[in-house]
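RECORD TYPE: inverse folding
INPUT: structure tokens
STRUCTURE:
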């Protein structure tokens, strides 16, 4: 964390650490409002708490129902807030080329609509949604099975352990789904006119699948360089083995 933060402060001052903050705040606000609206529009039926192993089927049904409802809220909120996320990402990566193409939320909306149309606001949406869906199902199902089969009801601290299981599973699963978020963010700035989204900093990907699997065809993908997890650690910096950018033929 100290490496990029120090570098940004040296170049842009402390203000540079807050690039893209306004659209990010609006995006988070829209996401929260949307989740609340969807929750009211599609209320989840109350189900009794089940922890007895004799009621595994009932308990699993409860988890599936809750996860499906949570998935609906997350997908809708992601759809609504993603355009602001795209603007936020592009405001951030302007640091690389010292551009001022996206100087405000409204001007950015007008520029994206003019240059890319409506679809320009939703680049990178699919991998983000896939990452969210996979995260929710894996996290909730793993927590359920661990609480059901690994934690004994006779254990005095069983309830305490169960309360932390989902949190721990969330950390573990987030490491597996991180590549989806990374690819989604790369697509948000890909080939948008900013230096960070163009060669030699990054190839011009045709789609998020192209971004993910390009290595099998042209050796330009993220995966062979171990970059699918770059930025995933709060404590350590993951750098490419040979270079700080993508190799270009």
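DESIGNED SEQUENCE:
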């Amino acid at each position: 964390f100290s490496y990029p933060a120090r570098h940004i402060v040296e170049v842009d001052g402390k203000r540079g650490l807050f690039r893209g903050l306004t659209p990010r705040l609006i995006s988070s606000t829209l996401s929260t409002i949307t989740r609340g609206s969807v929750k009211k529009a599609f209320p989840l039926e109350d189900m009794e708490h089940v922890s007895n192993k004799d009621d595994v089927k009932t308990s699993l049904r409860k988890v599936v129902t809750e996860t499906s409802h949570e998935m609906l809220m997350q997908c809708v909120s992601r759809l609504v807030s993603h355009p602001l996320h795209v603007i936020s990402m592009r405001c951030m990566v302007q640091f690389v080329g010292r551009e001022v193409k996206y100087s405000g939320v409204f001007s950015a909306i007008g520029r994206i609509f003019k240059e890319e149309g409506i679809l320009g606001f939703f680049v990178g949406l699919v991998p983000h949604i896939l990452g969210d869906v996979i995260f929710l199902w894996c996290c909730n199902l793993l927590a359920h099975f661990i609480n059901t089969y690994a934690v004994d009801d006779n254990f005095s601290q069983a309830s305490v352990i169960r309360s932390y299981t989902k949190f721990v599973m969330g950390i573990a699963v987030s490491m597996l789904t991180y590549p989806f978020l990374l690819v989604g963010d790369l697509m948000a700035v890909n080939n948008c006119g900013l230096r960070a989204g163009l060669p030699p900093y990054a190839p011009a990907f045709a789609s998020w699948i192209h971004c993910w699997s390009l290595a099998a065809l042209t050796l330009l993908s993220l995966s062979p360089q171990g970059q699918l997890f770059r930025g995933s650690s709060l404590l350590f910096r993951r750098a490419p083995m040979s270079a700080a950018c993508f190799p270009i033929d």
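NOTES: The chain has one domain: 1-43+59-221.
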